[in-house]
Amino acid sequence: MVTERYQFPKITKAMYKEMREWYDTHNSGKCAKAYHGCCGGEVSFHITPTSIGDFLTVRCSCGAELDFEEL
User: Are 45 and 15 in contact (CB under 8 A)?
Assistant: First the structure.
């Protein structure tokens, strides 16, 4: 589940909106029927700090990803 409850300072409301739209669209397909454990956990956030900026990838447990080039 994508929610603004978990906040990272550089993630904007527009980014959260894009994540929710991606998740809702993605979760309406094959992942909607997949089992993700008793407490969810199908989506994870991966923040990669580099010398040129921080990069964010949102990953579904099925392998689908949504990339943000820089935070």
Answer: no
CA distance 11 to 4: 10
Task: Give the residue from 5, 44, 37, 49 showing the smallest Cα distance to 23.
Answer: 44
pTM confidence score:
0.69
Q: Does pLDDT of 47 surpass 80?
A: yes
DSSP string, 13-64: HHHHHHHHHHHHHHHTTGGGGS---TT---EEEEEEEETTEEEEEEEETTS-
| Site of tokens 């904007």 | 12
